[in-house]
Automatic annotation (TrEMBL):
TM helices/strands, residue ranges: none
Pathway info: Purine metabolism; IMP biosynthesis via de novo pathway; IMP from 5-formamido-1-(5-phospho-D-ribosyl)imidazole-4-carboxamide: step 1/1; Purine metabolism; IMP biosynthesis via de novo pathway; 5-formamido-1-(5-phospho-D-ribosyl)imidazole-4-carboxamide from 5-amino-1-(5-phospho-D-ribosyl)imidazole-4-carboxamide (10-formyl THF route): step 1/1
Assembly behavior: Homodimer. Associates with internalized INSR complexes on Golgi/endosomal membranes. Interacts with INSR; ATIC together with PRKAA2/AMPK2 and HACD3/PTPLAD1 is proposed to be part of a signaling network regulating INSR autophosphorylation and endocytosis.
Native organism: Geodia barretti (Barrett's horny sponge)
Cross-referenced InterPro entries: AICAR_Tfase_dup_dom_sf, Cytidine_deaminase-like, MGS-like_dom, MGS-like_dom_sf, PurH-like
Keyword field: Hydrolase, Multifunctional enzyme, Purine biosynthesis, Transferase
Presence of keyword Transferase: yes
SMART domains, per database record: AICARFT_IMPCHas (SM00798), MGS (SM00851)
Annotated Pfam families: AICARFT_IMPCHas (PF01808), MGS (PF02142)
Domain (MGS-like) ranges: 1-150
The protein, known as: Bifunctional purine biosynthesis protein ATIC
Amino acid sequence: NQPRRTPLRALLSVYDKTGLTDFARALHDSGYALVSTGGTQAAIANAGIPVQHVEDLTGFPEILDGRVKSLHPAIYGGILARRDIAEHNAQLAEHGIGTIDVVASNLYPFVDTVSRPDATLIDALENIDIGGPTMIRGAAKNFPHVIVVVDPADYGWIAERLAAGEDLTQDERRSLARKAFQHVALYDTTISQYLGEDALELDETTFGFSRLSTLRYGENPHQQAGLYAAPLSSGGIVRAKQLHGIDMSYTNYLDADAAWRVVADFDQPAATVIKHTNPCGLAVHDDQPTAYRHAFEGDSVSAYGGIVAFNSHAHRCDRAGNARRPVRHIIAPAYEEAALDVLRRRRRTRLLEVQPASGPQEGLDVRLVSGGALVQQTDDIAESPADWKVVTEREPTDAELADLTFAWKAAKHIKSNTIVLAKDNTLVGMGAGQPNRVVSVHLALRIAEDKAKGSVLASDAFFPFADNIEMAAAGGITAIAEPGGSIRDDEVIAAANEHNIAMLFTGTRHFRH
């Protein structure tokens, strides 16, 4: 009771026809009878390669505008039958079904379709592949007996092995099956995200990414790393256009993303300098070169060798006074040609052109933890200083309120415990990542030095003790914004009143771990 398998048989049904005819010819020359569907069958036949239409094998025509063409026992029996089970072979023989030994398939271009501005829901639904994923999953399930191919990049080496009369090893078959299941999983994840963007609504969720490049290493040389993109997303650092400079590293991407997120949060022209994902310099000003100069002067020591980002077209900044200061890379949504001419003279400085990111995953913050993941909404709550509460005897001046608004927005981009000192819409000192808040205040004042006098302070969370206020007052701070909510708020407010400091409670915390 052996299955009817007079020749070896390969089923080819692909949307992406890259390398198709060469692969089909190689299979034919290696003794495989070819079976195919629709446009794939036409492409192979037009190349002069013998190929059988799938309906000749099933005895049933394509129906419903091609929605049903391969869903038939003559196809799936041949794919799913285990050759090492006698009963399976007997059933194939009883029903006149031959085995299928190679399945090559890739899927309708769902992402390309829904990315068109004029794409409708009907367009999206019509580009959800049904037969392709089913064939791929069936072949991958039975990989010990069926070679499944979803990536045209694999055609060449598989064809060479089969042409030489060599079978694929079980490890190679298993690897192809893994790739196939992942191909379908990403496809299904993309469809789910298109139908509803809020992953937190569901008890089950997946996140899908496609590798854009392999990086030399991760944070350290012994760690492997890669750069991946979300299929339905556009813009952002992942899809940045590199205009100049050496290849980006893992930490370069981390710092670049931090820099871009900071400046993208401001409406006014903004410039920032990033070191180890924290802004050590940040300023906003209607004149971009001025913002650039102020950002560097906020902490000129730390700014050396930093990452610079703008949220507006990059201009020539010769008159900024620090145009020759070394920077690792510069990020902007666009560059003036005069700026590019100057910046391209810096051999090691990377120039990135970045557009705002959009897509279903942009509103989420995903952290892998042992055994799973933490998922939360990104910290992009809309806030207005008009909603803040003045809790001290003295109200802030208009200038202090403007600086507090700037400092408060800056604080949410710096690692907790966060203290930001600002003056004239410029970050003049910051303390980040400390185990207690008073140390962050101390560090911010030490960095600011004389610039602390007359500056304002923002704290990402409440002050647990009044000693923070005493230290701030000694450094010359005149106004403070913090969330409030401590059991010692009364003591903190009293200390602020004692030193004639204006204090506002924002009612919102901005932890960043």
